[in-house]
């Protein structure tokens, strides 16, 4: 999940939790607000009545009135209690046979040496009439505020993380490993992203320099080794031409020649990998997949009778590959087929099929040989990595690394499915831009 999505999800969930808490607390809050508002009004009415009493006096000792709907009532009566009273609480009163609960302010005072009790009440039912409308208004306002804040958070998060997305695309995803090109600064006012941008660039420069040194070393070492190897081979061949050479010496010379041939083969392979990775090959060839696979078959078919292996090429519709290097692709298929033969069983089979998928060309090379174990699968393209089954073969551990280098050079994706003792399938996915027309 992307960082932007995670932040948006967190903001939405946090606001949802706040909204739920607010909805749960809303009735209590509104009830308290209504009650405080009512209490304030009762105190204001008390002050107004006391002002009138102090101005005009009290004409009747007992006075009581209420509104037509009995929503409010006022009462003034002589008070027999001597204690000070100034309270507001809910009490029930019986008016004209109806028992109604009121929010009642009770206040006693002394005027003309007499104690009086003033009561001002407001029906509890009328106090709660505004609760539902207020809840609805508050809920609508809350939902609107949450939506606006989510939208604002999303816009700000996108703006804030935009430089990070550019860094990922331009420095990591958009680059061809291990060639990264020149440094282009990502414009941002966030110091953390600036530091990240510079750090990634320095790390990439270090990696690129290390790869370049490795390539130069392999290339130079391969070139330098070829000369002494060729000289030694020539000297050994000249020694064979001598008539007085002993048989024991011939055996040793043959062993030396075999070792030199192996060393020469490894050196040539390393040089080839170095040239591929340095892109020293042109991609200007054009050849049909049928013709290319037929050339591979013609070259390697002499090995099939060794294990009585059947070899089938099933291509329902021929396809032309363009902008490729024929020599390298030949080596790619040759190495894969060679491995399919080398690690196959007696009376085994090799099948090559093709198919089209979303504009891409899929080439499957399948065998029913000894397969590859699950623990070995992640390392099959590593150089000089030799597994248990390859120990029994004349293998240098460079066949599949060559395949990987050639595939990367042509932007061909490789997928491998293998089951131990049942066989392997190498799936080559050629991009649409290397597929041409037969005409």
From TrEMBL:
Pfam families: HATPase_c (PF02518), HisKA (PF00512)
Catalytic reaction equation(s): ATP + protein L-histidine = ADP + protein N-phospho-L-histidine
UniProt name for this protein: histidine kinase
The keyword Zinc is annotated on this UniProt entry: no
CDD domains hit by this protein: HATPase (cd00075), HisKA (cd00082)
GO BP terms, alphabetized: cellular response to phosphate starvation
Segments crossing the lipid bilayer: 12-30
Residue ranges of every copy of the Histidine kinase domain listed in the record: 220-434
Broad EC category: transferase
A Gene Ontology cellular-component term: plasma membrane
InterPro entries: BphY/WalK/GraS-like, HATPase_C_sf, HATPase_dom, His_kinase_dom, HisK_dim/P_dom, HisK_dim/P_sf, Sig_transdc_His_kin-like_C
GO molecular function: phosphoprotein phosphatase activity; phosphorelay sensor kinase activity
PROSITE patterns: HIS_KIN
Organism: Mucilaginibacter corticis
């Amino acid at each position: 999940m992307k960082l932007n999505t995670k932040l948006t999800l967190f903001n939405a969930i946090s606001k949802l939790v706040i909204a739920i808490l607010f909805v749960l607390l809303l009735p209590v809050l509104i009830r308290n607000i209504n009650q405080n508002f009512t209490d304030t009004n009762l105190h204001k009415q008390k002050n107004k009545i006391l002002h009138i009493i102090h101005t005009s006096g009290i004409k009747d000792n007992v006075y009581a009135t209420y509104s037509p709907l009995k929503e409010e009532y006022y009462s003034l009566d002589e008070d027999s209690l001597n204690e000070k009273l100034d309270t507001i609480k809910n009490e029930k009163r019986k008016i004209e046979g109806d028992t109604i609960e009121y929010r009642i302010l009770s206040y006693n005072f002394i005027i003309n040496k007499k104690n009086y009790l003033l009561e001002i009440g407001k029906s509890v039912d009328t106090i709660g009439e505004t609760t539902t409308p207020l809840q609805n208004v508050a809920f609508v306002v809350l939902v609107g505020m949450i939506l606006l804040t989510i939208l604002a958070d999303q816009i700000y998060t996108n703006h804030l993380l935009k430089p990070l997305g550019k860094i990922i695309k331009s420095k990591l995803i958009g680059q061809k490993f291990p060639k990264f090109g020149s440094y282009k600064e990502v414009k941002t006012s966030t110091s953390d992203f600036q530091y990240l941008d510079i750090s990634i660039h320095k790390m990439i420069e270090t990696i690129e320099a290390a790869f370049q040194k490795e390539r130069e070393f392999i290339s130079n070492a391969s070139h330098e080794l070829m000369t002494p190897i060729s000289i030694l081979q020539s000297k050994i061949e000249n020694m064979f031409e001598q008539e007085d050479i002993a048989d024991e010496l011939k055996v040793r010379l043959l062993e030396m020649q075999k070792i030199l041939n192996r060393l020469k083969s490894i050196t040539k392979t390393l040089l080839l990998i170095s040239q591929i990775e340095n892109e020293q090959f042109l991609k200007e060839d054009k050849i049909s997949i049928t013709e290319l696979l037929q050339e591979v078959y013609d070259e390697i078919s002499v090995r099939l009778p060794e294990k009585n292996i059947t070899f089938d090429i099933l291509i329902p519709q021929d396809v032309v590959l363009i902008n490729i290097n024929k020599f390298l692709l030949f080596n790619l298929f040759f190495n894969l087929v060679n491995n399919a033969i080398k690690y196959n069983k007696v009376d085994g089979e090799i099948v090559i099929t093709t198919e089209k998928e979303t504009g891409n060309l899929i080439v499957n090379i399948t065998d029913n040989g000894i397969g590859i174990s699950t623990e070995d699968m992640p390392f099959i393209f590593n150089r000089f990595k030799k597994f248990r089954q390859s120990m029994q073969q004349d293998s240098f551990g460079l066949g599949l690394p060559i395949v990987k280098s050639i595939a990367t050079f042509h932007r061909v994706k490789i997928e491998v499915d293998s089951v131990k003792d049942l066989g392997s399938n190498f799936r080559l996915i050629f991009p649409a831009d290397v597929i041409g027309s037969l005409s």
